[in-house]
Amino acid sequence: MDNQFNFNVENFSINEPQIIIQEKCPFGERIPYGFSPETFEEKKQVKRVAKIIGGALLIMLGISGVIGGFLGIVLGLFGKAGTQLLTDSAFLQVLQIVLSSLMFTVPFILIFRASKYRISSLILFKRPKKKDIIPYTLLGVAFCAFSNITVSLMGDFLSSFGVEYEVNTGENPTGIFGFMLTFIATAIVPPLVEEFACRGFILGALRKFGDGFAVFVSALLFGMMHGNFGQIPFAFLVGLVLGLVTVKTNSIWLAVLIHAVNNAVSVILDYAFVGISVETQNVIYTAYLIISLLLGLVATYLLRGRKRAYTFKKDNVASDKRALYKFFFLSPMIIIFIIICLAESMMFFI
After folding, report:
1. 2: Cβ contacts below 8 Å, ≥ 6 apart
2. pLDDT for 25
3. CB-neighbour burial class of residue 274 (10 A; exposed 0-12, middle 13-18, buried 19+)
4. Per residue in 209-218, pLDDT tens?
């Protein structure tokens, strides 16, 4: 009977790590079991950055909701005249310009400045090298062109389940003035302010954890903020190439240029397709894809001799990549942002 109370020292030592007192970091803070001082510090940094980015994104959504709701109330006081203004395509384009300018600048500047970041340390405003301009611009434009196909593929995928998912963006204003207004609202303002936020603040704040991590996370958030299942996959893919170009050229300006070219082509095709047959539209779009393919091949040829032209340098982080993604995407701010974006996307099913 007494033998059952004799402990085997070797067996007991197997469980020893479970009762070790938590290690202390150089500053005296307890390190949870399973972490080294380096990985625990990276966890705290990732969660802090996630909190900052998530806060800016939530304020961005708040600005859109508050201004939209306020305008709806004010214009509703004017009865039929106010309702007509809310459906006027030219007015909506002007509203889009104002909203974009505020949403993608003010929250990020305020939150990051309050968090003691210097804008110049995050956003790469310097001019790209001449040798990078042509190949990476052509690569980005070609990639964006073929990423557009995902919008049709997503529609076909949902239709295969009997689900009609259409995002009604309204009609474009007509005439030369209407075209110019739409061009500004689509091909000039969004590329500037969205790249300022996504490939500037977000990508810049995340690069300390590895360029690949920063590009993927910023692209995913860029996709989610579009708020509909038709555009989320497209915007995510575009975000990947824009992030790659930004990292490879150490400049935000080529990402702005690629974004602007892609949106400009979209506006031009929208206006060009008015009043022509579907068959003619298909011919024009096919020609556009062929040209884009050729541009991509030229870009590939120009980049053929460069090492790591499409890949990232080795990350200088101690944590496992999966852990970094977990730390970031399990941040309450990021979770709330994603839930709101998904809820907004679901509204188009109704």
Report:
1. none
2. 52
3. exposed
4. 999 999 999 9
Amino acid identity of 55? G
According to DSSP, the residues that pair with 30 across neighbouring strands are: 24
DSSP tag of 208: G
Structure tokens at 224: 């989610």
The model's pLDDT over 278-337, given as tens digits with 9 standing for 90+, comes to 999 999 999 999 999 999 999 999 999 888 899 998 888 988 899 999 999 999 999 999
CA distance 237 to 221: 11
Q: Which two tokens stand for residue 110?
A: 């305020």
Per this entry, what is the length of the chain?
A: 350
The DSSP string of 110-163 is: HHHHHTT--HHHHS--SPPPHHHHHHHHHHHHHHHHHHTHHHHHHHHHHHTTT-
Q: Residue 228: helix, strand or coil by DSSP?
A: coil
Tokens of 223: 């996709």
Burial of 115 (C-beta count, 10 Å sphere; 0-12/13-18/19+): middle
Cα–Cα dist 305/63, whole Å:
46
Task: Give the whole-angstrom CA distance, residue 233 versus residue 317.
Answer: 29
Rg of the chain (C-alpha set): 25
Count Cβ neighbours within 10 Å for each residue of 332-345 and write b for 16 or more, e otherwise.
ebbeebbebbeebb
Q: Which residue, among 283, 281, 213, has the nearest Cα to 244 in the 3D structure?
A: 213
Amino acid at 165: Y
Smallest CA-to-CA distance from 108 within 49, 188, 44 is with 49
CA-CA distance, 224 to 198, in Å (whole number)? 12
**What single string gives the DSSP state of each residue in 162-204?**
T--------PPPPHHHHHHHHHIIIIIHHHHHHHIIIIIIIHH
Written as one letter, the residue type at 274 is V
Give the H or E element holding residue 30.
strand 30-31
DSSP-derived letter for residue 316 is -
CA geometry: angle at 132 spanning 128 and 138, to 5°?
Answer: 115
Of the candidates 135, 120, 147, 117, the one whose C-alpha atom is nearest the C-alpha of residue 248 is: 135
